[in-house]
Amino acid sequence: MDKKIQIKGNECPVARSLEIIGDRWTLLILRDMFKKKMKHFQEFLSADEKISPNLLSNRLKKLTEYGIIENKLYSEHPPRYEYTLTPLGRELGPVLQSLWDFGKKYTQS
Amino acid sequence: MDKKIQIKGNECPVARSLEIIGDRWTLLILRDMFKKKMKHFQEFLSADEKISPNLLSNRLKKLTEYGIIENKLYSEHPPRYEYTLTPLGRELGPVLQSLWDFGKKYTQS
C-alpha cells in the first residue's frame, strides 16, 4: 500500500478522509462489513437503517473506486457480486472502532 | 458523564454515534475545535472547506443540543458566542484522531 489515495486540493488529512468516508451511509456499509461480516448487496439492504438500493449501489461504487472495497462475481446467472474490504479498507478499522466505542459508552437506545 | 445520550430506536452503537456526528460538516467543525482550537463562528466560516453560515449554525445547534459542545456569550454588543467542547465532546477525540491518521497515512493532496 505505498500508493496513496489522491484527494486534490485539500491539505488537511481529516478532510481528505472525509471525502472518502464522510457520510453516514458509507460508514454504515463499512460497519456492516467490519462488524457484521456482510458481503452481499441484499444483506446490506436488509440492515436496520434501510438504505435504498440506489444509495447503496452509489456508495459501493465510490468505495470500490477509492480502493476501499473490491468486488468479485460469485454467480453468473443472475450476475451477483461479493464485496470485501481491501487491505487499505481494513486500515479504516480504528475509525469504525472509535465510533463503536463512543456509541457504546456514551449513548443508549 | 453518567447520563448517556438517548438515540431512540437504534440498537447499534456505531449507528447511534453516526446520528450525532455522521455528517461531513459536523466532523469538520469538530476537527476545527480539536485540531485548530477554533471557538468562534467567524473562524469556523473561514476554514478551507467554506461551510455556509446556515449549515454552520444548524450543526452548532445540533452539537449543543446533544451536549457535545457548549456556548458562552463573550460579547454583548453585538452578541457573540464562544463554542467549546464539553467533557463528553472531548471523548470524540479518538474518532477525529483515527480520521487524521488514516488521511495522513493513506491519502495525499
Explain what you see.
2 copies of one chain form a homodimer. Chain A has a two-stranded antiparallel sheet. The first copy, chain A, is built from 6 helices and 4 strands; from the N terminus they run E-H-H-H-H-E-E-H-H-E. By secondary structure, chain A is of the alpha+beta class. In chain A, strand 2 and strand 3 form a beta hairpin. Chain A has one domain (23-106): Winged helix-like DNA-binding domain superfamily/Winged helix DNA-binding domain (Arc Repressor Mutant, subunit A). The first copy, chain A, has helices at 13-21, 24-34, 41-45, 53-65, 87-90, 93-106; strands at residues 5-6, 69-75, 80-85, 107-108. The interface between A and B is large, with 45 and 45 residues.
Helix count of chain A equals 6
Flag low-confidence runs of chain A: none
Q: Sheet with the most strands of chain A?
A: 2 strands, antiparallel
Structural class of chain A: alpha+beta
**Count the strands of chain A?**
4
Fourth-tier CATH superfamily name of chain A: Winged helix-like DNA-binding domain superfamily/Winged helix DNA-binding domain
Oligomer: homodimer
Order of helices and strands of chain A: EHHHHEEHHE
Instruction: Please report the distance between the alpha carbons of the first and last residues of chain A.
Output: 39 Å
CATH topology of chain A: Arc Repressor Mutant, subunit A
Spatial extent as radius of gyration of chain A: 15 Å
Q: What coarse outline of chain A follows from CA principal-axis ratios?
A: globular
Q: Give the chain pair forming the largest contact, with residue counts.
A: A-B, 45 and 45 residues
Number of domains of chain A: 1
Instruction: Just give the CATH class of chain A.
Output: Mainly Alpha
What's the arrangement of strands in the largest beta sheet of chain A? 2-3
| Portion in beta strands of chain A | 15-25%
What's the architecture of chain A in CATH terms?
Answer: Orthogonal Bundle
Instruction: Give the rounded overall mean pLDDT of chain A.
Output: 95
